[in-house]
Structure formats: structure tokens, C-alpha cells
């Protein structure tokens, strides 16, 4: 494994850890770019889950900050919060954990799940299962699409990370 490949995996880990990017976006891009499916999947999911775990551990502080910020702004809920609450009421924690990441990201979904009454432990496990399922599903579709459409030449990262 060469240095540029190691750096590429570190970038996958770091970008997956950022709430705006998420593993289910970064991992398929890495696979499309020519990175190894299994390694990219594992590293991307671990990056996403690292910050999700940190968020869950610090949830009490974050929850207080979030609710204080909402009160200070003079509104009880923003549009994302209202959407999360509607999903929560209709489908509960499992539904929010699986639907939320696709619309607002796994980190905000976890925050809203705890704010709406989910336990930290249950929220972590449901959102973890969701991150794994979404990332695996989208990554498989991308990998199959590359094979089916014979797009091996689109692997734009391969010139930088060739073995």
C-alpha cells in the first residue's frame, strides 16, 4: 500500500466524519474513484460512527445547547426539527434513524432522536445500523453501476492512488 493510497483512506475517514458529508456520500465517491470497496466502506463507516459516538457521549451538553439556541432565537422549532418530529411521531426511533440521515444527516438525526425522547444507547445503535445500511446499499448500487455500464475508465482517483 503506497502513501497516496493511505492518504486517500485518511481523507475518506475524515470526510465521512464530517456531518455534512456522511459515509453514504463519501464511500460511493471513493468506490467510483477506483478505491477498494471493502476498505473504503469500512473506513468510511468508522469515520461516520466516530463522530456519531462522540455526539452521543456529549449528548446532554449538546441537547441543552440546541434547546437554548432554539429558545434564544425565539422559535421552538426550525424546519428540520419539525420534519424530524413528524417522522418520529409516525415511525418512532427506528423510522427516524433510517429516514432522517437521507434528509438531514445521521448526526442531526441522532440529536433529534434524543431531543424527542430516545435513549442515547438505542439512538446510537439504530443510527449506526442506518449508516451501515445506507452506505452499503448506495455503495453496492454504485459498484454494480460501474460494472454494468463498463465505467472502469471513470475511476478518476486511480492515477493518484495506483497500487
Keywords:
163 residues; elongated
Structural class: mainly alpha
**Count of β-strands:** 0
Continuous helix count: 8
The geometry reads as elongated
Assembly type: single chain
* Mean pLDDT score: 86
* Helix/strand order, N-terminal first: HHHHHHHH
Regions with pLDDT < 50 over 5+ consecutive residues? none
Approximately what portion of the residues adopt beta-strand conformation? under 5%
How big is the Rg? 18 Å
Largest sheet: none
Amino- and carboxy-terminal Cα gap: 6 Å
Secondary structure: elements and pairs:
Layout: H1 3-17, H2 23-32, H3 37-57, H4 59-72, H5 79-104, H6 106-115, H7 120-148, H8 158-161
Helix pairs in contact: 1-2, 1-3, 2-3, 2-7, 3-6, 3-7, 5-6, 5-7, 6-7
Task: Explain how this protein is built.
- With 163 residues, this protein is mainly α.
- The chain contains 8 helices and no strands.
- It has helices at 3-17, 23-32, 37-57, 59-72, 79-104, 106-115, 120-148, 158-161.
- The longest helix is centred in the last third of the chain and has 29 residues, at 120-148.
- The termini are close together.
Amino acid at each position: 500500500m503506497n502513501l497516496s493510497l493511505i492518504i486517500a483512506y485518511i481523507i475518506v475517514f475524515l470526510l465521512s466524519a464530517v456531518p455534512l458529508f456522511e459515509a453514504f456520500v463519501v464511500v460511493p465517491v471513493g468506490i467510483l474513484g477506483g478505491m477498494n470497496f471493502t476498505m473504503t466502506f469500512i473506513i468510511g463507516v468508522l469515520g461516520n460512527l466516530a463522530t456519531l459516538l462522540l455526539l452521543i457521549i456529549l449528548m446532554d451538553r449538546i441537547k441543552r445547547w440546541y434547546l437554548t439556541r432554539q429558545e434564544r432565537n425565539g422559535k421552538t422549532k426550525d424546519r428540520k426539527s419539525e420534519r424530524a418530529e413528524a417522522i418520529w411521531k409516525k415511525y418512532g426511533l427506528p423510522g427516524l434513524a433510517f429516514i432522517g440521515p437521507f434528509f438531514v444527516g445521521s448526526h442531526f438525526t441522532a440529536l433529534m432522536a434524543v431531543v424527542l425522547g430516545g435513549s442515547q444507547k438505542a439512538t446510537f445503535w439504530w443510527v449506526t445500523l442506518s449508516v451501515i445500511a445506507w452506505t452499503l446499499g448506495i455503495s453496492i448500487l454504485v459498484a454494480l453501476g460501474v460494472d454494468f455500464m463498463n465505467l472502469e475508465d471513470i475511476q478518476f482517483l486511480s492515477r493518484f492512488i495506483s497500487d
